[in-house]
Give the backbone structure.
Amino acid sequence: MIKRSSGFTIIEVILAMMIMASGLLILSNSWSGTYTRLRKTQVQVQMAALLERKIIEIEKEYKGKPIDSIPDEKEDTFGSELPEYSWKMTSQKLELPDISPLLKANNGSDTGGTKLDLISIMKMFTEHLNKSIREVKVEIIYQDKKKPIRVDVVIYMIDYDKPLPMGGAAPAGGS
């Protein structure tokens, strides 16, 4: 009779090590992916908070001031506590399209110059809006190792104190 000693063969040990190594590889890949997604989420949340903060600061800074006091461009960082984040603000006057050619091309009936009055009123109103609304784009930039990540939002600053121009047209059938 042959007596067997209890233990593992070399093949069983190698097989067990291969199974354990693949399990560790899968676990480390899962951890790496989770960590990357967690870091990306942290950056996105931070960018959203900074964007909201910067919008509030800009609205507070220019509230009650003339619309022309808003600069065309302005940028800075968030200081030493957030060195990888910066912001940029660009602004421009709102340019509404001139729809008077559409009104002129309309083939409706023209009774007593009402179409001409409507065209002049629309032009006057469009010019007023162009002068009293400013489009402001606020952008937050995160300097990632690979490429910068950008988030932006556009707000419209309105100068409510600009007087609405009143035309000299008298109402039809005036009294």
About this structure: Residues 169-175 have pLDDT under 50 and may be disordered. Helices lie at 10-62, 100-105, 114-132. The radius of gyration is 33 Å.
